[in-house]
Amino acid sequence: MGSYSMSFSGGMVLRYVLGAVLCSFFLNVAVASTTSEDEELVTHLQAELAAGLVLPSEFPIDASLASIVRNLWSEHLARMKPVFFAWVAQDRADPELSTIPLSRLHRLRMRTLNEYALWQLENNDAMPDTAWLNASAQIRHCYQFKSAPAFAQRMLAIQSLPVEHRQAAIDGERRLLQRWGTVRANLPIRPVVSVKREVADVLKLIMADTRTSIPAMPPALAMALLNDVKSVQSLGADASCALKLWWLKSQKIDSPEAVAGAWLRWRYASLPDVQDWYANSGSPKADASIPTDYPLSAAFFGVSGVLTLEITLNKNGEFSRAVVVKRAIHVKGLQSSQPIAFETLLDDAALARAAQANYAELGQVAKSKGEAVRASQSFQFVLH
Amino acid sequence: MLKLNTFLLTFVLGWLPLQIQAQDVAAQEKVLRDQAAEALWWGDFPELERLFALHRQNDTGPLTPYVRLRAVREGIGSVFRKHKDTGDRYYEELDRLTFEWVKQYPTSHLAHALHVRALYARAWAYRGSGYNNAVPPKAWEDYYKHLGRAQDFVKLKAAIVLGESTGIVYTQMVGRALGWKSQQIWSLGKEGLKLNPDDLGLYEEAIPSMVPKWGGNSRDLDKFVREAVEISGQQFGLGMYAFLYAQAADSQYEHELFEDSLADWSKMKVGWQDLLKYEDTNKSRNQFAYFACIAKDKPTLIEQLAKIDQPDYKGWGSNGARTYETCKRWAMAT
């Protein structure tokens, strides 16, 4: 689980009101059809949410902030109870879900996780991006508090803000939490090149001894990535966090736009990693109905969709690079929420398909022009 | 080296109030050591600065200033000592990182000292820990190249690097690796003692170059020990005599300390008694008993063996368990 941020656009209040109305509607439906199983599910979800909102006893949050935070969580837990009932009712009413091997509880957990991701992605605009970036990008948070819940790290960032700005930041957090379970419009667009992808490219430069102004890595990263040649995907939570900081150091941040861009990429890079969840579930194998090149984790979570890639062929007409530029993702059971936490699960498979595809015609164009050419191509992933 | 470090802890603790439990101190020292290692491992320079500054404070619990300093240096050292299966890319990043810190913190002693330490580590990573004839010629080139860079850096930034004892200790290490004469290393150490008389690492670094194995001789070693006792006498009494000869035993002489060096058991014994007067631990009794045994002082050996709760083989030389058994058998023989 990750942490942080938000943007309160002009339509936020309207969206919130609509969301509240929607919740209220589902609440009434849910209350009417509450069963003991529903109660049990909601109790479970509440307990898991509460467990994720406990400040570790040794956590260095000052007393006044801790008290405010506890109130914030109490409010949030109370608010989420009817939302959870609504989710259970929606799940029960959705015929599509009968095809998913996951249990109802598991599907509901996916929704909670996605809310965590949305919480992290949206911007708490109570403070300038620079302040958030500076407060969040601290190496000590990566290693000293690596096992602290995401929200606790988020509070640590708030504590790092100037004292006079804390209350505004807390109010911003409250507004973000109030949006859990609602549909968010105008989410920031995912950057085409992820932080990890960019880092992987930089690593190639280092390994080829062609680095120029790349900052030095801390020993933990140097050992893992340069000595042991591990992939950036295989890093643990602490090293992944340090990697983001190292990446941030390499960025030229000399304008408000650059700050906003870096802060957005930071937030996307901080989303919960559902691959970990899949791995922790024992990496279940797919059944025979799943296509052989379908990512097992995507099948596990019921993810399907269409990805649009930008393909680059070199001047010889050979495939040289592909990047995902658009995702139209559907996740069974996630209902109307944008599947932020799950939307990259098909990326690698799409990139692999792109690398193997035939580009005869486009290749001819590149060869006749004698220069690299780019084209857009879509790849569909269907789950039956 | 481990046993001597442990001994050194005992030594420094000797001047602390009796109620301080050695185990607590050792545990606290370990915490500090681990914190320093972790801070460097993750590249957290402000945290390293905070930990390093602890030795300048007088009110940070039972650890003496020197133990705090040593704990931080040991933690730092653990990140630099990863030779096995570790290629130059790791050391190159440490070299770059510490130089970035030098640029970022141009007046920081620690940043500059760390860069010297990083270059020393990079050199030794090429050299390896094997015998000279196991080192390929190209590795020697790289070894001397990075040591030379370290030496040049010290010259260039002498006012900062040599402005605190840690930079001096690291420079002594570089000098030793470059084959400086023992007197040159000790002279530098004495300069460090003017800055920080508590930093026993300055004595410790001088010892290896004093023993015959590394180009020294017993006469110069004894001269050094006597001078060290004179410098530190008011603070440590004859404890320094016991400490330095114990270290010399560890570096080369082992069981032959009293045959092959000019160590005087009567003085060393007083040094141990000084230590035990202030802190009577199982560990120091073991060490005292060991030196009594190799000095063939049976009454003292018997006396100390009787006070040992349990054998601590680390206090009994390189073949500790067997040496303990042998000494015990000799003590019990009529």
Please provide a written account of the structure.
The complex is a heterodimer of chains A (about 375) and B (about 325). Chain A has about 375 residues and is mainly alpha-helical. Chain A has helices at about 10-30, 35-50, 65-95, 105-120, 130-135, 140-145, 150-160, 165-180, 195-205, 220-225, 235-250, 255-270, 275-280, 295-300, 345-355, 360-370; strands at about 305-315, 320-330, 375-380. Chain A folds into 3 domains: about 10-125 and about 145-180, no CATH class; about 195-270, no CATH class; about 295-380, no CATH class. In chain A, helix 1 (about 10-30) crosses helix 3 (about 65-95), helix 5 (about 130-135) packs across helix 7 and helix 5 (about 130-135) crosses helix 12 (about 255-270). The model of chain A is unreliable at about 1-25 (pLDDT under 50). Chain B has one domain (about 1-250). Chain B has 18 helices and no strands. The longest helix of chain B is centred in the N-terminal third of the chain and has 20 residues, at about 20-40. Chain B starts with a helix and ends with a helix. Residues about 1-20 of chain B have low confidence and may be disordered. The interface between A and B is medium-sized, with 19 and 20 residues.
Name some characteristics of this structure.
heterodimer, A: mainly alpha, 3 domains, three-stranded antiparallel sheet, globular, disordered N terminus, B: 334 residues, 72% helix
Could you give a short description of this structure?
Chain A has 384 residues and is mainly alpha-helical.
Which outline of chain B best applies?
A: globular
End-to-end distance of chain B: 35 Å
Gap from first CA to last CA of chain A: 30 Å
β-sheet strand percentage of chain B = under 5%
The chain-level mean pLDDT of chain B equals 88
Radius of gyration computed on alpha carbons of chain A? 22 Å
Mean pLDDT of chain A: 85
Give the fraction of residues assigned to helices of chain A.
Answer: 40-55%
Low-confidence stretches of chain B: 1-20
Query: What is the alpha-carbon Rg of chain B in Å?
Result: 20 Å
As a percent range, the share of strand residues of chain A is 5-15%
Oligomer category: heterodimer
